[in-house]
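Our collaborator T.R. sent over the components below with a one-line note: 'Predict the complex.' Nothing else. No constraints on interfaces, no templates requested, no preferences about which chain binds where. So this is a plain run: every listed entity goes in together, and whatever single assembly comes back becomes the starting point for the next discussion.
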Amino acid sequence: MEMVTDTGSTRLYRPSGEPGHQQAQRWFNAADITVAHQSHLLKQLDQQRCLELFCDCSVIVEGHLFRAHRNVLFASSGYFRMLLSPQSLDRDRRPGLSDTASATFDAFSPDTFALILDFIYSGRLGLSSHNVIEVMSAASYLQMNSVINYCKTFIKSSLEISVKEEEEELELNLSDQEVSPLHNPHQLRLHQQDAQTPVGSVSPPPALWTHDGAHLTQQVFMLKDPDQAAPALAARADNSDGGGGGISPAHIGLEEANTGVEDPLDTHFTISAPERRRSRRGARRSAPYSTRSSTINDPPEVQEARSQKAEKAEELYATLPTIVGVIGQFHNDSNPTMRFKCPFCTHTVKRKADLKRHLRCHTGERPYPCQACNKRFTRLEHLRSHFETIHQARKLVCRKCKCPVTEEGSHVVCEGTRRYRMCAACIQKVGCENLSMEEGLEGLDEEPALLLGVDGEEEGDIPRSWMMSMEQEEDEDDEGDLAEDSGTDLIIHEVDDSDEEVQ
DNA sequence: CTGGGGACGGGGCCC
DNA sequence: TGGGCCCCGTCCCCA
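Returned assembly:
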């Protein structure tokens, strides 16, 4: 074997992980050999770390230096994956990262990072009642969902529940562990030093963050084969771009099924904001502001996809409080404050509601569709702004000459589903015969054909009736879940989360 | 090609 | 906690 590049006549040797190779070769793939190999490999990496051999990454935590291999960190942590990605390194030198690949953290202690680093290289996570919260916070910061889930399991197992429930749960979980190892090769085994520690699957109470640490006992979570940790994480990294390459909750023997947040980016509906923007704008260019409500007329498969997206979003939200609570210093805060960290990125906010709002940029949830053009928005205020600007001509500015106008001194011009104002002078210049004009917004209320509301009845004096276009009236029977925002001119259509990209 | 404006997304924060 | 407002950044369109 020789170290080569793909220049000249020498061809680059491709790793055998490609599908073509798998089909072309007959694998001698006994499970124990694979396990032994992974174990050996991880031990070697750990030894190299201890000897500082080939360590090409430095992590500084409150002045303490940790040496590690960047490829291992890359494979283990969504944060490091973002930090160490070639694109990131080329595009911009992030504040915490220098040319020699070093990162600086102040959000957690060196001891905590040492635990996490040990886990990365060994599969052993030394949790105690005193460190579990900080480890969980650090894991959240570093986007290591597997560690988060271990902490959750640790905490849950430490909650006091009835002896009967304890026995039933333990029996159930142990039986589960016995059934599923073939499907969960990295299944965790909970080693409880204190046999009296209750084991349960109830969710941690809100007071978790100020819990009485005396209830939690020292526990160590281990992989069945601890030395598989890094290879397993590396393998998972192929399928998730930011979730930390963790082991799924199903691999955790004491984890219940509602931890849908694990590997959230491994799902089809979590599209990054820039990607969504590009996709959405592309769609807008191809079919700008369709007057037809595709929400109503979507084929069943699209509606099914939306339904699944909504369920996924619900799962994400359901698991929110136990994941994102982070106590520490962020940015330039002088005082440690409680903040909520996004499980998908490094963003933190002061309020959970703000985080919920922020999460929509990750989940793709757009619960506010415009009834006029079917464009969907993440916020009601965005929908309102869009509707007033695009469909109601609320701006008292002439579209053509940009001069300020009044409602009385201007005309509303229709262009498809769009409406805008033009001053009398510009109307004269363009020519009335080329325009579809109205006498201002108030004229909308006087148009009988446009006064049809949700039920096809006249709706009084509110101009929101325009939102029900003539075409959409045909589909009124499908809009049983319409909800009106009585304070505005809008009709808020609470539907399953979706967006146009599904199509 | 470039600059300005519009539309939109997203964060902070107040009520 | 949700709604709403303000502000800013980004992207796209158009002159």
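Summary for T.R.: The longest strand of chain A covers residues 410-415.
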